[in-house]
Amino acid sequence: MLGDYRITGRGAADIAASVERGIGTGALPPGHLLPPQRELATTLGVNPNTVAAAYRTLRERGLIETAGRRGSRVRHRPASTARDDTIRVDVPPGARDISDGNPDPALLPPLGPALAATARSAGAPVLYGTPPVSDRLAAVSRTGLAADGVPEAPLTVTSGSLDAVERVLAAHLRPGDAVAVEDPGWGSLLDLVPALGLRPVPMAVDDEGPLPGDAERALERGARALVVTARAQNPTGAALTAGRAAALRAVLAAHPGVLLVEDDHGHHIVDLPLHTLTGVTRHWAFLRSAAKGYGPDLRVAVLTGDPLTIDRVAGRHRLGPGWVSHLLQETVAALWESGAVDPAAVAASYGSRREALRTALTERGLPARGRSGMNVWVPAPDETGAVARLLTAGWAVGPGARFRLASPPGIRLTVSRLTPADIPPLADAVAAALTPGAVRRYD
Questions:
Q1: Which of 172, 256, 297, 400 sits most deeply, having the most CB atoms within 10 A of its CB?
Q2: Peptide linkage before 184 cis (omega within 30 of 0)
């Protein structure tokens, strides 16, 4: 059953580590069936409870899954392996890469002058014991959050969106708890949830956000947290409308014990208003990142939420990194205050490219989604074949498997660096890739 790999160990921790080594080296590949607990206990000469504890540790770490009498298997995508590592598109020389989800560098402000100006204007050096949140960033953040209808609440700062989500989930949940997530959704989040030992429960998404019925079913099935993207949802471009937000708030009101995590990473690249879900449940968190509008290397996200959640996150942060660099915090605050980025112009730039591509795909008989942000999502029944054919045509696109749990297949096209001249040939290539053998001409 295990080929040449021999699981070893006398204690639960040693047995779990042995299995993890086998997974890491590839000796125990994805989907591989592990020995029944009693059989392995007999082989190792230990109590079956010891093996049961080892398997439980591996499940909590997202490395194996157990399906009752069908036994325990190595997960098809172990939590320690990111989706981008296992679903990789190798871009050949000369191909255009529209798979990475990066912003357009031409729309990002130069960080050198901003960082230098912040350093020059800094007063006394930041020392141990300094409050973790810059007064300047706190002030500009509170003004913006209040204008968008987010309830006034304590603030802290984390190293980007995913860091904030991880810290909030870890502050309230325990291994084995279920988390309602968007499907298709952010691949990094879909990796993070099982890596924390949590169980993702998919919610289908349309252009207005998660479907209320799916959210309700997820919460009724015991999901203890719900993670939702406010705007520029990755990969579909969904954005919460007022009506959808009201429907989801009603669902959450019936489950006040659920933890809500709302991600507004689309801040300053989207011209749609924010319709927040916050303030309904007892425990909630709202995060706003600088990465998309000001550059991914600005690892700063402002996090607000109910006092207990923020206290837990900030307290645990103090025991680890301590704080996010005040130099970075002050730089973000200065960029937000100065108008170094014109949010309306940035949103219009991404919007014109996104709408041009959607229109071109529609003219070719292909449905495409992309209400906000910098991505377009196109259904693709033969996802693998479509990605391969597009590579041959000179376009590297994002395989939908990076972003899916149970939703139908598709491909993600990042429009950030497309020019008007790129749109027709790209649309032609997508149409040919999704309907091979069909003859089309678009003059």
A1: 400
A2: yes
